[in-house]
Amino acid sequence: MPTALGRTLRFLQDRWIARGIRWPFQQRPPSSLPSRRIQTTALPPASEIGGKTYRTDSWTNVPLSVLALIPRRLHTRPSHPISLTRELIESHFPPPTYAYYNDLSPVVTVAENFDSLGFPADHPGRNRSDTYYLNQDTVLRTHTSAHEAEIFRRNASEGYTISADVYRRDAIDRSHYPVFHQMEGSRMWDRRKVSGGDVAKAVWDDLSKMPKHNLQVEDPNPTVHSERNPLQADYHSVEEVEAIAAHLKRSLEGVVVELFSKAKQAAAAAPNIPEASTEEPLRVRWVEAYFPFTSPSWELEVFWQGDWLEVLGCGVTKQNLLINAGVPDQLGWAFGLGLERVAMILFSIPDIRLFWSRDKRFLSQFTDTQNINRFRSFSKHPASYKDASFWLRSTSSAAGGGLRTNAQDFHENDIMEIVREVGGDLVEDVRLSDEFQHPTSGRKSLCYRITYRSLERTLTNKETNELHEKVKEDLVQKLGVEMR
Fold it and tell me: Distance (Å, rounded) from C-alpha 93 to C-alpha 204?
């Protein structure tokens, strides 16, 4: 199921989050108002993805640049750091107990992406400001959990992992990209199949067969708390949840031990890394959390290079999800994480754009899961900073005339889409640097600082000036703003 490296825009009620990496249920705060959405590049009447044709309509907001990334499937490309990270995690969830789902189509229905998980009709995650719509009924999945109900319904194995590319309209910075990768996993026990219907005993028996570790674990809170981390009392006993939580935590602690042990080994082998940072003992802690689809719930944090990092979210699966999927006798746990987040730590990769690079100087640095290397920078090119300042139209006719976008329907992701379509991976960062409201007219002015920097070469002034002029032209044409 279930992301600061940079500024993170968060959804209201969902917190599968670990500093800049988006979990499957992360949603925008309620201030993210619905707005008139832009389409930065005209789409044909239909789009073909994976051999299937999808009609476009007034809801369509997927730019061609995002459609072009769908076939890349970084999580399945041999020797790619995203794929290597997936393989390392998968190795802790072996078949036949766990089935692997790495080839699921990114195109899902609105019902699969939202309705099957209980998203209310007015949930901000459904807005076109946040989600890429192929048409009114079809989206590019925003989380791996879009496939969850179907996999529960299949009931083909006791556990599973899903790894997939997911898509969201989002900020532009070194830790955000419109396409990223998530991994989730689940383990279930069936009351009808365990001996005597005793799920707690069955779970403890399974736990006794799992490898142990000598990790320093801080876990000071009780497994359940009536207010902070409640039991699903209508469905689960305390004994069942105690056993499930212990199995869940041991499973994920084992993952963390391997990932961060390899990261420490890679750091120790790299030059110019302080010895103290590689010799400190690995420490983890469990923190109570709230997620809409698990209860009780936790986040797992790791003390890494002097700071606590949130790595993943997890918990006891909400029983209503299993009931709705037609498997009411099952109960168990689920977790989710962002593969980019983990890979950036594991391989010391500083910029999310690098994952999409085809440059052999990047790709040749990674080989297999037995030889984890820290990324070695092959170039450092200068940045070019440009400002885009503009007025939004006020609601009064005297303030802005016939311009199309006003302060009430403006959404920051519209800016991001325009800049991304013009500059692509030549844009490193876009952030609001100033805002002002005129005391008399009420007009609102915004200024965005855009950082242009190539990962592979030095951009000329002529190039960045041309890109920036095109950005300003598109802001006026597509958002109806007035440049200052």
Answer: 17
Q: How many CA atoms lie within 13 A of 68 on its CB side?
A: 8
Prediction pTM value: 0.87
Angle formed by the axes of helices 412-423 and 461-474, nearest 10°: 140
- Give residues with Cβ within 8 angstroms of 253, minimum separation 6: 213, 215, 217, 284, 300
pLDDT tens string, the chain, 484 residues long: the values are 443 323 222 332 333 333 333 333 333 333 332 333 344 455 678 989 999 999 999 999 999 999 999 999 999 999 999 999 999 999 999 999 999 999 999 999 999 999 988 888 999 999 999 999 999 999 999 999 999 999 999 999 999 999 999 999 999 999 999 999 999 999 999 999 999 999 999 999 999 999 999 888 999 999 999 999 999 999 999 999 999 999 999 999 999 999 999 998 888 887 766 555 556 788 999 999 999 899 999 999 999 988 999 999 999 999 999 999 999 999 999 999 999 999 999 999 999 999 999 999 999 999 998 888 899 998 889 999 999 999 997 653 333 333 344 545 678 999 999 999 999 999 999 999 999 999 988 899 999 999 999 999 999 999 999 999 999 999 999 999 999 9
- 51, two tokens: 């051999």
Cα separation, 417 vs 178, whole angstroms:
9
- Asked if residues 203 and 178 have their Cβ atoms less than 8 Å apart, the reply is no
